[in-house]
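Morning run. Coffee first, then this:
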Amino acid sequence: EDGIWKCFGQCNESGDVIDYVVKKNPGWDKREAINWLAEKFGIEIKAPKHDMPGRAALATAADVRRVALGVFRRWLVGEVDRKTKAVTRTGDKAALDYALDRGWTLETMRFEGVGFTGHGTKAEFEEMRGEFSMYGIDPLCPTAVMILGFEGNLDEWADKYGVDKSKLDTEKNKIFGFMSTPALVFGHKFDGQIEYISTRFLPEWEEKRGRKSDNPMTVLAGSKRAYRNSLYRHRNLPEQEKGALLYIVEGQGDGVTNRQFGVPSVALCGSSWNYLVESGEVGDWKNDYEDFIYV
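And here it is:
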């Protein structure tokens, strides 16, 4: 009646018809689902308007994360024509080679939604901003700034968007977004929604930065979350059977690798056990699985 579906099986996800098409076609984003539905039912999609303050006001942080991950995924694994199956866009060679060297298949990367932040080129920034515009996303909202970065008067920006200035270095007047450093990018999902984004630098940049990744600022990204691979199954109803064993690993890449071997996993991503207990994540895992093993 309300146009929303809900799976009461293992995946326990829900959404509208667009979400359903995305779910049935691993690796697709909502743009691809909309285009497929439009073709199927003979609907013409008009070019988006650039001045959409009403739509921008409705865009949520979850929308920004979902749209950005869709672009990042294209940059990593490329695109294939739905009808002809011909490759219409190739993924970034350096990033894809690094991911493939980890033993991941393209199928695994698509299921997990792994992406690439790009090389910080003008064309990449234009593409991301264009995608945000198509979905009515304000490129200056905090979650979009987490992706694109920001340079300007941070005091004024923080006042306009209700950001806690005590968490910002307002003297620098600059925020570096995910797109400032080439990295693999991971969407942390819960009940089908991307609720957090994390990255892992490519090897060259890991050496330059002297670390594997940067955690996004909490004022932009929200509280840090563990990474659950796509085999993790939620249990919302008491009568649902718990999963037998959940593997706990350290990094997101380990979670992706475990998915390839059919193992449900969560990655701590540097979070302390006490933090995960206090945040309620460990409680969720206990609700969903009979036992844990740390590897």
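Residues 48-58 have pLDDT under 50 and may be disordered. Good start to the day.
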